[in-house]
């Protein structure tokens, strides 16, 4: 907000302290898939945690309507009893990839679990990567998608993405050329 031409002059240093607390994303309206009128996810900034600190979230629990949960697949199998030879149906639920898993960020282990060594280093690294990715998705939605929602809807924003990618490639190529020129100079000496 401080970078906005019209709003930047209105925000004082005291205001900035409050505005730096976090952000909240709100999605959807009533639909056929869940009973929630909207879904929200809040990201809370904590300076004392620093970059390496915990990510703090508040989120909506999705109340899926019957058979509409997009984060799970449902499988019905027949099972025959050996004793009675009768057949019954068993419903198995399997988790699947979905955008809506965004509303279920990974849960960090408790302090007790960490202290007792119940979580190994590899699990912690995986968890940290998943939390950082979740946070980055939220930041991208806030900074890149929402401010240009109409452009994303019409597809015009894809042109911007191509331009950004082209600039990065040019930068990388320039660096590679500079590095190879330096190597040639060092080889000549």
From TrEMBL:
InterPro entries: NAP-like_sf, NAP_family. One of its GO terms (biological process) is nucleosome assembly. Pfam families: NAP. GO terms for cellular component: nucleus. SUPFAM superfamilies: NAP-like. It comes from the Eukaryota. Residues 163-189 are annotated as: Disordered. Transmembrane segments: none annotated. Belongs to the nucleosome assembly protein (NAP) family. This is Unplaced genomic scaffold SPHSTscaffold_577, whole genome shotgun sequence.
